[in-house]
Automatic annotation (TrEMBL):
Keywords: DNA-binding, Restriction system
SUPFAM superfamilies found in the cross-reference section: DNA methylase specificity domain
GO molecular function annotations of the record: DNA binding
GO BP: any one term: DNA restriction-modification system
Name recorded for this polypeptide: Type I restriction modification DNA specificity domain-containing protein
Length: 160
């Protein structure tokens, strides 16, 4: 579960591999969403956006396989991670310290399904917004370094 990150995805190199061949129905495939059913804060989804080889998930995780003729996996993953959807999961979660969302609560979720074209547009905008945030962080770091360099130069100049 530590390999899951809703924002960053999954790093294939960090996955634990097993030698035994699981049943095909247990294998995770590209386009699946791994749903974290036990959480302290959020019940997030992570999209599998690569072709995993012989990967299965641990029992507290739920694999969602979207019907791609109705919903884009990236759209469904985005929808699962939205605040309003997280509120639905919080309202249906059981437990105190570590809360758990059961399969029934997941199945009860009403997913808003615009056309596939609109879903693709939403996914594209989400991707562009994430890239913008990444670039702004890089720019902020460079600006801070530039300002520190200027201030250090000013501090190093001899007084007249």
């Amino acid at each position: 579960m530590r390999n899951l990150d809703a924002a960053l995805g999954i790093e294939p190199a960090e996955l634990v591999r097993v030698d035994e061949m699981p049943l095909p129905k247990h294998l995770v495939r590209e386009g699946d969403i791994i749903f974290r059913s036990r959480a302290v804060k959020s019940f997030d989804g992570t999209l599998i956006d690569f072709e995993p080889n012989n990967v299965i998930v641990a029992s507290p995780l739920i694999v969602i396989t979207p019907q791609q003729n109705k919903v884009l996996p990236a759209y469904l993953n985005w929808f699962i991670n939205q605040h309003i959807t997280q509120s639905h999961f919080q309202n249906h979660a059981k437990g105190t310290a570590v809360r758990m969302v059961g399969k029934k609560a997941l199945e009860a979720l009403l997913v808003k399904l615009p056309s596939l074209g609109q879903q693709a547009a939403i996914v594209k905008l989400v991707s562009l917004a994430a890239e913008e945030q990444r670039l702004l962080r890089v720019l902020g770091k460079k600006r801070k370094q530039y300002m520190e360099d200027i201030l250090m130069q000013m501090a190093s100049k001899p007084q007249r």
